[in-house]
Amino acid sequence: MKIHLVPAAAGLVLLAGVGVATADQVIVTPEQQTVIREYVDRQPLASISLLGVELNVGSTLPDTVELQPIPDVEYRYVVVDNHTVLVDPGTRRIVQVID
Fold it and tell me: What are the record keywords, sorted (predicted)?
């Protein structure tokens, strides 16, 4: 009986590791950050206020918020409460708060 439990336990450990490895994690490279900061500085937006939306990575912005494109970058940006945030346009989730 112990022989059968060891492979089952090992399988569970592997599955747990796969779950951690496939978690949604967005990595903005230093090169992308430079491009983004320079573009945002050249293309300033008026700040908007969003009641009830926390500016945290993973928070979702409502469909009413207009997201602005950044050339050669897959993300969009918007300025909320004087903070520039990068947003995944497909999910509308915040991937990074720039400032």
Answer: Signal
